[in-house]
Specification:
By secondary structure, this protein is α/β, with parallel strands linked by helices. A 6-stranded parallel β-sheet has the order 3-2-4-5-7-6, with helices on both faces. Strands 15-14-16-17-19-18 form a 6-stranded parallel β-sheet, sandwiched between helices. Strands 10-9-11-12-13 form a 5-stranded parallel β-sheet. It folds into 3 domains: about 5-185, 3-Layer(aba) Sandwich (Rossmann fold), CATH 3.40.50.970; about 195-350, 3-Layer(aba) Sandwich (Rossmann fold), CATH 3.40.50; about 370-565, Rossmann fold (3-Layer(aba) Sandwich). The radius of gyration is 25 Å and the shape is globular. The chain contains 22 helices and 19 strands. The structure holds thiamine diphosphate (TPP) and magnesium ion (MG). Magnesium ion binds near residues 453, 454, 482 and 484.
């Protein structure tokens, strides 16, 4: 017999959030959504309050990408427009998000009432699932459904539009069915068709130039140990685009992250969708597959297998499950003597990796004493200053094309670098809130947000969110006084008006005004000291910011000198 207790809709929602083991809700308050926030807090869920709903939902995105769990964001009635960017990002990238959008009263629809908006019309095209709930007793079922869709197959965002009356109305909890997660979703995963697994392995084991290209589903399915085991068993090298790092450590001899692999003859493309980062160059990043690569595409949703890729073979399945099947089948096939020697190709890619490392060193040496500070030096100094297990959240444009080339060499575990720009929509700006979410998932490790000054401007006020909530991230602003990627290699003064800001803005003072520790650097020899002090402040619980003035000239990726390298065979 259930006990009688009078509760409101917020309490019903909080019950489900608790049974889903939600630890944080990222939100901006408001009359209607407060019913959810108060009930959740009463049940021990941590509410982090932001200055902008887009910041809140981006933090949920960062939390999900770092933890692998569902990120939960909430906003009040009518504010769906402010969460569009993180919804689009997570939809493109496949981040499991649940966004709870409070709404105005159903009875007042179209009467000009405050904050009246059918938010579904905005959210439907940019979410994996979206619905509106108007029936109080069915609230738990709808929240559970949102979690099912966010996590099922390849993950993505679910949006629930919550009519005001379902939040404010009260009723007896004993009359409501509150299902547990195992009643509305299963953890069982889709396994690959065994015949197709065998065919795929025949192609892969007999290839002269095979490559494994790992995508986000290897992370979401927690399949990185299986990925490594399969690579070691077959002696096939692994790569992934630079925004999805550490699936196997960079120092592992089979990691060839960062190099051109487009001349591979067979690629196992596992857990990835059609994506600019793979089929073509993403700015100065190397192409990973070419027109002559035979692609074996593995993905959990059948409607995506084969999309755009001109595949040789398709397998529907969860990345971890398929890798497990492949390991088992490979052992059998190897014991029957199957497999071709591909050591020449192994050496070719290994040589490219060495060439890559040499190139980085060459760039550092060339620009070490360059004034203003050069991104090659700044990147090296940051890598050297942080702990080995530190996470980078990377945001901006030109500065990130440089920094991610160094960041990839640092990575030891999955998602040690989280690259904002490589979500597909490539909107700059959400780095600071994403770093806040990331830090909440990794409180015991340093989180550094490396960000362009343009990108920084979009959510700068969330520094106060970090400070106020004692979530001590360290922000490094690459300050070239403009939307630098467009400036080419010209002097700042010669750049179009709409691409530049005031010169040398003191973002460090802005940070100090918001409670943070601030550092300002123009001299290359002072970078190290400033970074050390900022990381030290963060280790003591204070959010910190290092404002580094860098040059536009000689920093632009188009003239970076990486261009020759990426097309090398
Ligand atoms: C939200 C958004 N608006 C506009 C763009 C177009 N855009 C691409 S790169 C870029 C410049 C980014 O400047 P900054 O963050 O300062 O990095 P920098 O290139 O100077 O290193 C802009 C505006 C974008 N990608 N995202
Ligand atoms: Mg800039």
């Amino acid at each position: 017999m259930k006990e009688k207790e009078e509760v409101n809709g917020g309490d019903l929602i909080a019950h489900v959030l608790k049974s889903e083991d939600v630890k944080h809700i990222f939100a901006v308050c408001g009359m209607q959504i407060n019913f959810v926030l108060s009930a959740a807090e009463k049940r021990g869920i941590n509410i982090i309050s932001f200055r902008h709903e887009g910041g809140a939902a981006s933090a949920a995105d960062g939390y999900a990408r770092a933890s692998g769990e569902v990120g939960v964001a909430a906003h009040t009635a009518g504010m769906v427009g402010l969460v569009c960017e993180p919804l689009i990002n997570s939809f493109r990238y496949g981040t499991p998000l649940v966004v709870l959008g409070a709404a105005s009263r159903t009875a007042g629809k179209d009467t000009g009432q405050l904050q009246d908006l059918d938010q579904r019309l905005v959210a439907i095209p940019i979410t994996k699932w979206c619905d509106r709930i108007e029936t109080w007793t069915r609230l738990p079922e709808y929240v559970g459904t949102a979690f099912r869709h966010a996590k099922a197959g390849f993950p993505g965002p679910a949006y629930l539009d919550l009519a005001q009356e379902v939040l404010t109305n009260k009723g007896d909890i004993s009359t409501v069915n509150i299902p547990t997660p195992n009643q509305y979703r299963t953890k069982a995963q889709v396994a690959g068709d065994p015949e197709y697994i065998r065919q795929a392995l025949k192609l892969l084991l007999n290839a002269e130039k095979p490559i494994i290209l790992a995508g986000p589903d290897v992370f979401w399915s927690r399949g990185w140990d299986e990925l490594r085991e399969f690579a070691e068993l077959t002696n096939i090298q692994v790569t992934y685009y630079l925004g999805l790092l550490g699936l196997i450590p960079y120092k592992h001899p089979l990691s060839v992250c960062g190099v051109n692999t487009s001349d591979a003859d067979v690629a196992l493309l596992i857990g990835e969708r059609p994506n600019v980062n793979i089929t073509r160059q993403f700015m100065t990043d190397p192409p990973l597959i070419g027109p002559d690569t035979n692609i074996i595409h593995v993905f959990p949703d059948q409607d995506t297998v084969g999309a755009l890729f001109n595949i040789r073979l398709g397998i529907v399945g969860n990345a971890k499950t398929v890798l497990k099947q492949m390991i088992k089948e490979t052992k059998k096939m190897q014991s029957q003597g199957q497999g071709t020697d591909h050591s020449k190709w192994l050496n070719t890619l290994q040589a490219r990796k060495e060439e890559y490392n040499k190139k980085l060193k060459e760039m550092e040496d060339k620009f070490w004493n360059h004034r203003p500070i050069h991104l090659a030096r700044l990147s090296r100094e940051i890598i050297d200053a942080v702990d080995e297990n530190a996470t980078f959240v990377v945001d901006g444009a030109n500065c990130t094309h440089w920094f991610r080339k160094w960041a990839c060499t640092h990575d030891k575990y999955p998602r040690q670098t989280i690259d904002v720009l490589q979500t597909g929509i490539s909107a700059v700006g959400p780095g600071i809130p994403m770093a806040i979410g990331t830090k909440l998932a990794r409180m015991d490790r340093q989180v550094i947000c490396f960000i362009g000054d343009g990108a920084f401007g979009q959510y700068a006020m969330e520094l106060e969110t970090a400070f106020h909530n004692r979530i001590p991230i360290t922000v490094v602003v690459a300050n070239n006084s403009g939307w630098g990627v467009f400036l080419g290699d010209q002097e700042w003064e010669a750049s179009p008006r709409w691409e530049i800001f005031e010169q040398k803005i003191r973002y460090d003072k802005l940070a100090e005004a918001l409670g943070c520790h601030g550092e300002y650097v123009e001299d290359p020899d002072e970078v190290k000291g400033a970074l050390t002090r900022a990381l030290e402040a963060a280790s003591k619980g204070q959010t910190s910011l290092v404002n580094v003035v860098i040059s536009v000239k000689n920093n632009n990726h188009q003239t970076s000198g990486f261009d020759d390298y990426i097309t090398s065979k």
